[in-house]
């Protein structure tokens, strides 16, 4: 008897999307608006077009773009064609763009017109590229010296064909970690990884306070070059959500899209929410921010930021994961105990890293590998197993072995677990301040500082100290009037109630205009340390 070996690939994940949600919309700024049916037709056309120009199974195709419909089509068409999508980090300097494309083995590149000049300057170095695929929002054809050169829209107009039934264990994507020192590491994921990660998120995001349904309008504010935009393009298409693409992130554009497209759900790092709440005319959009649900990841969600968002009617909750985990491991939804708590009581749980999503086995372990008790105070490292974790770093067996030591993926994040089972990240091992032989949990200190009126963003770093080894220094950007005395009085109050310990209090408060950023818009603590050392 002949049976069908059903593959957990992207083609099969979205096999019924057109039938169920064909009239749902995908919107790119005020530039393009079309239905799921039209989108999926273009995806099939791009699959065929890639094959026509010689793309073979396993070929790596780099993409350099903002969050656009072209990128969205590539998210589906490239892996569904059997090729591998390399989401190139466009915030890297040109040298790193070249190095990551070379390391990944890119053979073809889809590139937005504004990035063409960067590549043209170094064209002789890209002798490994077999074909350049260009597009523009403003002109019909892009003129370029890059060769051989293909027009994106011409490829999409190719005769549509049924995408192949790709093996679920085939590589689907590759991208590079933000790597603040040294060469970024390549991270790869298979069709099966993306399939199961998507199913888990669709199931878990139905819990309160998210309670997402197909009536919610998504606008992910995680760049599409960063960990699959946290999987939101795939979640939206499976769940039937209107999907809004903002292009390059600009506060006024984002606020305008929130208003016009009635966006109800987004994902982002804390700095993006700070940017939106600090927009000069944000008060004009207050009515359109009411009911907006936001998952904050990439860095801890400070309670102070969550409280500021709440004043605008925004529900901001925490989430957790990393590049190597596809990325989501936990989301701070309400479990059966938290749902019975008051608004004030539940805030500490909603601003935590949250609870493991379905199929994710997440533990916090001590140095002997034993799970820590759920006492909110015993610190350990977060380790994980899930069917969507990367199996290692691309072409780097040594670091891969270190990542997966003992059969668990080691995150390098330090955390505690509370009595309800919520995980609270307290620091990165590499960022932790070790003073007098003991760790100071900088994220807890940052969280307390974020609650001071007039404080905007906060970062606590360790500075070398002759007596204690390291001591904490707090860098703060202001939103309003605030001085050192108010900040230290606030910290002393939390010492008295036992929320922090006295020796955790930063030795210095440094007010700065803006926070330095990594290529994925996180606060660059290494740069803050360097700046302080040079002061």
What would you note in describing this structure?
The strands form 6 sheets. Strands 7-6-5-3-4-8-9 form a 7-stranded mixed beta sheet. The protein has a 5-stranded mixed beta sheet with strand order 12-13-14-15-16, with helices on both faces. The mean pLDDT is 94. A hairpin with a 6-residue loop joins strand 14 and strand 15. The chain is globular. It has a domain of 101 residues: GMP Synthetase, Chain A, domain 3 (2-Layer Sandwich), CATH 3.30.300.30. It contains 18 helices and 25 strands. Helix content is 30%, strand content 24%. It has 535 residues and is of the alpha/beta class. Helix 8 packs across helix 9.
Query: Total strand count, please?
Result: 25
Mean of all residue-level pLDDT scores: 94
Shape: globular
CATH topology of the domain at 433-533: GMP Synthetase, Chain A, domain 3
Any low-confidence stretches, pLDDT <50, length ≥5? none
- Summarize the biggest pleated sheet: 7 strands, mixed
What is the second-level CATH architecture of the domain at 433-533?
A: 2-Layer Sandwich
Order of strands across the main sheet: 7-6-5-3-4-8-9
Q: What is the count of DSSP helices, taking H or I runs of 4+ residues?
A: 18
How would you classify the helix and strand content by structural class?
alpha/beta
Oligomer: single chain
- Strand content of the residues, in percent? 15-25%
Helicity level:
25-40%
Rg to the nearest angstrom? Answer: 23 Å
Can you identify the CATH superfamily of the domain at 433-533?
ANL, C-terminal domain
The rounded distance between the terminal residues' Cα atoms is 76 Å
CATH class of the domain at 433-533: Alpha Beta
